[in-house]
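Hey, I was hoping to borrow your eyes for a little while. For a while now I've been wondering how a particular protein folds. The fold is given in discrete form, as structure tokens running alongside the sequence. Could you read through the record and tell me how the tokens relate to the sequence? Take your time with it, there's no hurry, and the full record follows here:
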Amino acid sequence: MDFDFTPEQQRFRAEARAWLAENVPADLKGRAFAASRADRGEVDRLREWQRVLHKAGYVGIDWPAEYGGRGTSIMEQIILYEEMSRAEAPQPVNRGGISMLGPTLMSHGTPAQQARHLGKILNADELWCQGFSEPNAGSDLANLQTRAALDGDAYVLNGQKVWTSMAHVADWGFFLVRTDPNAAKHKGITFILVDMKTPGITIRPLRQITGEAEFNEVFLENVRVPAANVVGKVNEGWGVAITTLAHERDVLTMIRHISLRTALERLVALSKRTMKQGRPASKDPVLRQKIAGLQVAERCLQLNGYRSLTRILQGGHPGPEGSTSKLFWSQVDQELADVASEMLGPYSQIAEPSPLAPDHGQWEFYTLLARGSGIRAGTSEILRNILGERVLGLPKD
């Protein structure tokens, strides 16, 4: 494994760093490490920021040039995310479209689907949500029950999706539906694109412990979707979904550790200006030791992510690094929130807009959000089972 970046990658880093230093809006700078995507006004502001990034050529840079990208490797994408973290800049708001749906359409979509959607994904004209999870099909995704019956030139969808991030502000969604209820569990599933303004769609926000409602329930009642919106072949959507999930896993492995690094840097800065017993918290030996432990853990996550990236860049497939990183990240993320709470004491519970809220209330938000780190994007229990069975060779439950 080579830890050195190539001269071309170093030049790209310098280019991105200089551009971000000049162009990150003051009202968005420093508000990315614990920011909400539930408020429509905030989402619209982030759309504007993505359009600025896109105009400068910093959205979907690993996409082929024929689809609007730069044709770089995933390494340049990671360098860009690292520099955005360094500049305290928000990431593109349309992450599901850029990192998941876009590559899926390039691999499985028709020329018409690619022409219709790819450009609008990049410039944030279309925000996308992911309609995969259901009440009884989260960790066991293939157990989905939402039905789609062909009626002329359209499919009629009936069912329910849950934990659908940003459904309340999304223009479109990519959904998994069951088109053959008699087929085997992983068969008879179809991947389809749904206009979220279609009659019959009801969206109910799910209020989270943070007070926001980024997650949603989505109810589908006789929703007519053109058959031309099917991606790939009918009844073979599981293979299409695997492409989507593979891209999600590869990118999120690195994004998580970059986001964690951003929060850790904010924690270090906080420790230098927060007073504990008449001196900065950074001088407290116990808190210093805990922060040092978090820095070691973050570095381990970074190197584990680089190991996975190296395998991908060499033409291989991701190993167990994704599962180990997610499991370890969940633990470190919660420990970081606990250290911040210990450092701030009662002030860690004060939310915006109170002038007493540290960092505009982001630590209050972060502390509550971290409670779900062991649940979202794969529960810690499921990940331990995966590692135990597939890596250690332990018997199944």
